[in-house]
Amino acid sequence: MSAIMRAMKIYLDEVFRLHDTGDHPECARRLEVTRKHLAASSLSTLFHTSAPPGLASDEDLLLVHDQQHIDRVVEACRQGGGQLDPDTLVCPHSDHVARRAAGALVSLVSEAAQGGSDCCQSLLLCRPPGHHATAGRVMGFCLYNSVAVAARHLTVRQGLERVAILDFDAHHGNGTQDIFYTDPDVLYLSTHRAAPFYPGTGRADETGEGPGRGMTINLPVMGPPFTGVTETFLEETRRALTRFAPDMILVSAGFDGYTHDPVAGMGMEPEDFERIGAELRELAESLCQGRLVSVLEGGYSMEGLPRCIESYARGVTGASTPVSTTGGKATERSQHGR
After folding, report:
1. Are 255 and 305 in contact (CB under 8 A)?
2. How far is the C-alpha of 7 from the C-alpha of 103, rounded, in Å?
3. Is the dihedral of CA 14, 19, 22, 26 positive or negative?
4. DSSP summary character for residue 125
């Protein structure tokens, strides 16, 4: 195993199954099929079945959320769960699980910020996802915005001056964008299906306000058919990160861009995610001492999600073993609404 592979760690924890959503698309089975797949793959030596310690406190969550938002989630879980918005369910354990996801991610980014090359690249496979959660609203399967909590932790508590968040989920991360829309210290770059696709945000002219102007970059994808998704995302990412020179790169890694995803889909194949992982690794190594921390967002194909996650991890580790697919890559000319 190469030194680059040793630097990559993949984390999953049984606690994330306790967020019980029944037969909802964002369900515990997503992680179960992924766990079985990765345990049987050649990446199994990088795979940890317990996440780093950490449980986000109210103080942690208040870095990006307001108290009323937190109280609403806590109270709904205390009363046995229910439906907090048309898409978002909670059970009695959901607040704890979502805090565990945010806390584990904070642990990983803290380790990357403070440690050496052996802990600077990681992938946290957790649920519920987070990038739709705004400062004051639960939405789109998301309770707390883990990647936003981690980014704000880095700039406020760890002293990092510049943090980049890259988001390749097929749905726009409206919550992450809203939280950092006026923040000059956090760059947010997203590729996603264009409005009116859910959540209806992420137009190319949404670029930030005040001191954060220019720190939001949206690459809405027109389609179907979807062409040029990977190429355009990587071209814009190279340009933006080279200019911004981040101290760390965080990734909202959503795999619902997979061509057969039942919820979204952007014509992407597992090889696309491998290419993204490889190029993000190279950018991290050249710009920020290899600091690249990724967290799972969407991805709802029980057949495709594990393969896409494996492919992305192969890209980040530098592994070269191909993952079989049934189609070609989405790397033709761009049809983005810019």
Report:
1. yes
2. 21
3. negative
4. E
Amino acid at 159: G
Pairing relationship of beta strands 8-12 and 47-48 according to DSSP bridges: parallel
Dihedral, CA atoms, 198, 302, 35, 175, nearest 10 degrees? Answer: 0
Which candidate in 132, 153, 192, 336 is catalytic?
A: 132
Contact between 313 and 204 under an 8 Å Cβ cutoff? The reply is: no
Band of residue 223 on the pLDDT scale cut at 50, 70, 90:
confident
d(CA 299, CA 312): 13
Quickly list H helices, 79-166: 94-114, 146-156
pLDDT above 90: percentage of residues in the chain = 88
Amino acid at 241: L
Helix pair angle (270-287, 304-317), 10° resolution: 30
The per-residue pLDDT for range 256-305, each reduced to its tens digit, is 999 999 999 999 999 999 999 999 999 999 999 999 999 999 999 999 99
Domains of the chain as residue ranges with CATH: 3-317 (3.40.800.20)
Q: State how far the Cα of 93 lies from the Cα of 127, in Å rounded to an integer.
A: 12
Tokens of 261: 């995803």
Q: Would the pLDDT of 29 be above 60?
A: yes
Confidence of residue 5 (pLDDT cuts 50, 70, 90): very low
Alpha carbons 96 and 100: distance in angstroms, whole number? 6
Q: Out of 1-10, 197-206, 278-287, which region has the weakest mean confidence (pLDDT)? A: 1-10
Q: What are phi and psi of 296, to 5 degrees?
A: -70, 135
Q: Rounded CA gap, 22 and 27, in Å?
A: 7
Would you call 48 a catalytic residue per the annotation?
no
- Nearest residue to 121 (alpha-carbon basis) of 307, 305, 250, 255: 250
